[in-house]
Amino acid sequence: MADRKRKLFLGPQLRRLRREAGQTQAEMAADLGISPSYVNLIERNQRPVSAELLVGLARTYGFDISRMGGADTDALFAELSRAFADPIFEDAGVSREDAFEVAAGNPVLGAAVVSLYRAWRAAEEELNATRVAGNRATEDPVEEARTFLHAHRNHFEEIDQAGERVFADRAGAALFDALAARCERKHRLRVRVLPAEIMAGAWRRLNKHAGEIAISETLDHASRTFNLALQLALIEEGAALDRIVNAFKFETDAGRRLARSALANYAAAAIMLPYGAFLKAAEELSYDIEALGRRFGASFEQIAHRLTTLRRDGAEGVPFFFLRVDAAGNVSKRFTGDIFPFARYGGSCPLWTVHEAMRTPRRIVTQVIELPDQSRYFSIARSVMSGAGGYGAPHVERVVVVGCAVKDAHRLVYAKGVDLEAAQATPVGVACRLCERPDCAARAYPPIRRRLVFDEHRRLAAPFSFAFD
């Protein structure tokens, strides 16, 4: 490190200077009387800057030599040292020597680290102030439950195996009837389908005193079966649900309870759509969601959700992400599938066909989309109706979206006959506040990391103009 201190490495500064001048490495090399390869080596901190070259930079570009290696480096070094002393960096083993290396050798990166640390500290202080004030709960139980599912890749092998055993025990009977018989045989609980006025708004109710599980007659067959499977899972797999959930660290009791509820729903799906049989059918039917629904007596949303769970070692399906959004753009369910970077908060991109699907009820809408990082995905969207009852009963219409990376889309029936490589991809963003596409006319908000630019003499199609400095 001593040898590095005696030499002046200005790679990032030189690169920024060249870009601000709008020059290529060859053009800068010609101005300075050196080779392009030498400029390249200096920019990558593979070569130090000589005194002669410093003079040339000052003469040609007005480069301020006095700022190099002096007070600016010392100030940045001090800022980085304070940041790296924070306990959050303890496990990284970052030293003062590392801070000096960054400050002297890559001050652009160092300044970015300092800015990020300051923002984190400000957010941390605001969070603590809110907690002290007691104004509202700062933890988000819904996000905690989502984090729990994501940490397990939305796959729970123990629960899947239990579901397969229950499904295999049906002895050829219709699943609802088989589950009802199992409840009575093993748990002395009679299953009854009752009118709405008796259920008093409930879809499912366990009455241990009467030895009865009541299911509302307002539910369709798929929902009746799911609710009965859910109640059976809560009875038979309660200990396993508790063990899995309690092994995860939650900040709130509400988060833990939501995660347990999500896991119980997973267990119900594992009974209705047993892993091995479901994966085999999915492959046979090229992941045709509606065909799978007819084969297993399940809804479109139940099938779509189950597709995201096919992560068994040695028997994996297509990796899918999942999204459910309402007409106002509120996201009520999402799962990244380790492939799609959903925003934690906010709605979805208005250029995505999720919104077109709302205008064309029950029709499958497909789309090839491309994020700003040029990653491409194939999405399938369709509207679904939730609720129960007949005419006049309240219903909620939402859109369910599943998707996969374009490289896997050839396995789907929806991509048959589509040239996925040549297909025109719709440029979308994760969310307006995080998307930095400058020419999007559908933008609702400017990106949070860019400075707004105002020009009263020019109006563009995009509602916001912003700088990339």
Write up this protein.
- There is one protein chain.
- The chain is α+β, with helices and mostly antiparallel strands and 469 residues long.
- The chain has 4 domains: 2-120, Orthogonal Bundle (434 Repressor (Amino-terminal Domain)); 150-272, Arc Repressor Mutant, subunit A (Orthogonal Bundle); 317-431, Beta-Lactamase, CATH 3.30.450; 432-469, no CATH class.
- Helices cover 45% and strands 14% of the residues.
- The chain has helices at residues 2-6, 11-20, 25-32, 36-43, 51-61, 71-84, 96-105, 107-133, 141-151, 157-168, 175-187, 196-199, 221-236, 238-246, 253-272, 275-284, 289-296, 300-307, 354-359, and strands at 190-194, 204-207, 212-216, 311-312, 315-316, 321-326, 331-335, 365-370, 376-387, 395-405, 426-427, 451-453, 465-467.
- The protein has a 6-stranded mixed beta sheet with strand order 7-6-10-9-8-11. Strands 1-3-2 form a 3-stranded mixed beta sheet. A two-stranded antiparallel ribbon has the order 4-5.
- α7 (96-105) crosses α8.
- The longest helix is centred in the N-terminal third of the chain and has 27 residues, at 107-133.
- It is elongated and about 90 Å long.
